[in-house]
Every structure is written in C-alpha cells, then in structure tokens.
Prior knowledge:
The chain has about 80 residues and is mostly loops. The protein has one domain: High-Potential Iron-Sulfur Protein, Chain A (Irregular), CATH 4.10.490.10. The chain is built from 1 helix and 2 strands. Bound molecules: iron/sulfur cluster (SF4). The site of iron/sulfur cluster (SF4) has 14 residues, from loops.
Amino acid sequence: ALQKIDPKDAQAVSLAYTDETTTVDKKKFPKHDNTQTCSNCQFYQTAQEAGTIAPCTIFGGKGVAAKGWCSAWVKKA
Ligand code: SF4
C-alpha cells in the first residue's frame, strides 16, 4: 500500500507540508486558505488515488493526504 509521507521528513519540512490544511500558519503563508488541499492541487495524482492518500509529483510519488497542503500547492487546472 502507498505510504504517506512523514510531515517531519526533511523535504516535507522544507515545503511546510501538513496532513491537515486547516493547520497552516496564516502569518507565514498569507495566500493560503482552507479550500486549498492536496486533493485539488495540480501535483496530486488522483488517477492512482488510494482512499485518503495519493502520490504527489513534488514528493517523488510518495503519498500525501487528500486534506493536506504544502507551499508548492498549485490549483489543479
Ligand atoms: Fe499536496 Fe500539492 Fe504540496 Fe503535493 S504539491 S504535497 S499535492 S499541496
């Protein structure tokens, strides 16, 4: 099964990844809002979705949470 990335992983920390978008620091990321989630991000590989996690291109295909977020978020086209 697809493993979800650890938010304490070095790359996750560098991109401020969280499993829960509502926990993002609004001061550090003023453009963030709670409608932004991995599940509506360009890099979320929904074709391979496995429940509440799916591979993220930015994280080299490792799993991220549907309700997660990171600073590389881009709205799905
Ligand atoms: Fe989630 Fe997108 Fe960041 Fe990947 S790039 S962790 S899908 S917000």
